[in-house]
Amino acid sequence: MRAVVLTGHGGFDKLVYREDCPTPRPGPGELLIKVHACGLNNTDVNTRTAWYSKGVTDETTGGAFDTAEEEDATWGGAAITFPRIQGADVAGTVVAAGEGANAGLIGKRVMVDVWLRDWNDPLNMDKCGYFGSECDGGFAEFTKADQRNVHPVECDLSHAELATFATSYVTAENMLNRAQVGQGDSVLIPGASGGVGSALIQLAKRRGAKAIAMASEAKWESVRAIGADTLLPRAPEDLKTALKEATGSENVTVVADVVGGDVWPSLIDVLARGGRYTCAGAIAGPMVTFDLRTFYLRDLTFTGATVVPPGVFADLVGYIACGEIKPLLAASYPLEKLVEAQQAFIDKKHTGNIVVTLD
C-alpha cells in the first residue's frame, strides 16, 4: 500500500513516501480501515522533530533540534519505534474484521479515537498511547485499530471535512472539561485560528460560554464566522487594556491555551480571582515566566490536558452527527505531498485544519 513513513527524528527528509508498504492485517478484536483522509496535528510535527524532549526549549518550528534526546522524544516522555506511520485523524471505511471483532461494521464510515488504552485498566493514564505514535496511524491507504476505538459516524460531511475533527476537537473538549467551563464563563483563546483554537470557540459556545479569540487581524473574518464573540490581536501590547476596551472587563474566568511563549504571563494576569487556566500545548515556546504570587493570591486553578478520558470521543462524534459543530477545512493535499502539507501547517497562515487525502 501507499504510505508516508517516518524513519527517525529530524527534518522533512525523515518523512519517506512509499508505495510498497505491507497492508496491515487486523488481529483479534481489530478492524481494518480504508483511509480516505487524515488530518494533520502538532503531535506529528513535535514527534518528528523530537520537540517533546526536555533538551528542547524553543518554539515549534518544524525543523530538527540538536539538543533533543531520543529517550524522551514523544508526548509521553519515552522513545518511539521506527519506522512509524504517523497520522491520528482518520476518516475512513471499515473493510475487514479480525477474529472476534464486529463484522457488522464492515462498510461503515468511521472515525478513530486517537487515544489507545489498556482496556483492562482504561483509566490508567500511564498505560495510554496515541494513534500514529505508539502504533501506526493514518498516513497510509489502510490502517487498523481496536474496535473499541472505532466509531461509526453518519453525516453529510466530506471525508476531508470529517478528518479535521479528531485530535483538535477532542483536545479542546478535554480542555473545557478540565476547566469546568459552563454557562456564563468567559474563555480567552490564544491561537484561535488554529485547529484546537477554532474547536475551542465552537465547543465553548456550545456550552453557553463567551469565546474571546486572539488571532492575527488577517484571520478575524474567518474566526468571527465560527462564532467568536470578541476578537483581539494575536499578541496585543497590553492585553488587559485590549480586553477591557473590547469587552468592558479586564478579566476572564478561563484561559484555554495551546500557545505559551512570551505572551504567557499576560494571559495569567487577566484571569479573574478564582479563574482557571487549562493548557494542551506550547507552540510559541514551553519556557515561560511564572509569578507564583499571581497564582496563589488570586486562588487560580491550573490544569494540564493531554490524555482524554474514555467517552469524550464518543461525545464528539455525537456532536458531529447532530450538526452541533462544524468543520473548518483550510486545505487538502494528496498523501504524496504530506511534506508540503506539513510545511503549510507549520507556517500557520491558515484557519482551521489541513488534511491529506488518499482517494
Q: How far apart lie the N and C ends? A: 13 Å
User: According to CATH, what is the class of the largest domain?
Assistant: Alpha Beta
Q: Find the CATH superfamily of the largest domain.
A: Medium-chain alcohol dehydrogenases, catalytic domain
Helix/strand-derived class? alpha/beta
What features would you highlight for this structure?
359 residues, alpha/beta, Quinone Oxidoreductase, Chain A, domain 1, Rossmann fold, 2 domains, 6-stranded parallel β-sheet
What are the SSEs and their pairings?
Elements: E1 3-6, E2 15-18, E3 30-39, H1 42-49, E4 89-97, E5 109-112, E6 115-116, E7 129-130, E8 142-146, E9 150-152, H2 159-162, H3 166-178, E10 186-189, H4 195-206, E11 210-214, H5 220-225, E12 230-232, H6 239-247, E13 252-257, H7 264-269, E14 271-279, H8 292-297, E15 301-304, H9 312-321, E16 329-334, H10 338-347, E17 353-357
Parallel strand pairs: 10-11, 10-13, 11-12, 13-14, 14-15, 16-17
Antiparallel strand pairs: 1-2, 3-4, 3-8, 3-17, 4-5, 5-9, 6-7
Question: What does the model show?
Answer:
Residues 10-356 form the Enoyl reductase (ER) domain. This is Zinc-binding dehydrogenase. Keywords: NADP, Oxidoreductase. The chain is an alpha/beta fold. The chain folds into two domains: 3-164 and 327-357, Alpha-Beta Complex (Quinone Oxidoreductase, Chain A, domain 1), CATH 3.90.180.10; 169-304, Rossmann fold (3-Layer(aba) Sandwich). 23% of the residues lie in helices and 24% in strands. The chain has helices at residues 42-49, 159-162, 166-178, 195-206, 220-225, 239-247, 264-269, 292-297, 312-321, 338-347; strands at residues 3-6, 15-18, 30-39, 89-97, 109-112, 115-116, 129-130, 142-146, 150-152, 186-189, 210-214, 230-232, 252-257, 271-279, 301-304, 329-334, 353-357. Strand 1 and strand 2 form a beta hairpin.
